[in-house]
Prior knowledge:
Chain A is mainly β. Chain A has strands at residues 3-6, 10-14, 19-26, 32-38, 45-51, 56-59, 62-67, 72-77, 86-94, 97-100, 104-109. In chain A, strands 2, 4, 5, 9, 10 and 11 form a six-stranded mixed sheet that branches. A five-stranded antiparallel sheet of chain A has the order 1-3-8-7-6, with no helix packed on it.
Amino acid sequence: SQKIEQNSEALNIQEGKTATLTCNYTNYSPAYLQWYRQDPGRGPVFLLLIRENEKEKRKERLKVTFDTTLKQSLFHITASQPADSATYLCALVRDDKIIFGKGTRLHILP
Amino acid sequence: DTAVSQTPKYLVTQMGNDKSIKCEQNLGHDTMYWYKQDSKKFLKIMFSYNNKELIINETVPNRFSPKSPDKAHLNLHINSLELGDSAVYFCASSQDIGGSTDTQYFGPGTRLTVL
């Protein structure tokens, strides 16, 4: 069965460092991979989308990589700030099917 | 202006009752969804509608019935509520489904508590 895993439930990073979150998947060949941010008590907010034929995508301090051989996506936040603290979800998309990971709670420590 | 809105934000009810959650989007999107996020924060799709037609119906008890009166609205009706239905329900919309325009725009969620 299709499975999507995000590296850890929680991650603590010192302010100013780069935070790296991992999304691994099995038994699936997504056409797209998306990353969302979710704050407590709110709905997820879209951050970045990367296609299966793209290796890397950047947006300001965010960078996403997609390795279809390893079946893995990495999500980086450079120069992290306490305001980046949130839960980050990856989502796999193919045709009309979308699957979300459980998310990683990121804490940026001042 | 809120892009995707849901009402109510909180819903507390007794087991066995019937309740509805309403969702509206003003983005002009063709596709709307209902998701359930349980206590472990796992976000799982329940239904999707494209232009008022049901596209995805995951394994959801038939006590859950979505209704789309027009493409800007997707309501969720739940019959005979059970304790296990307690969760946060998110409505979402996207311009299209399955393509690069299927970025999901989520509502604020409805926290349902069944006592």
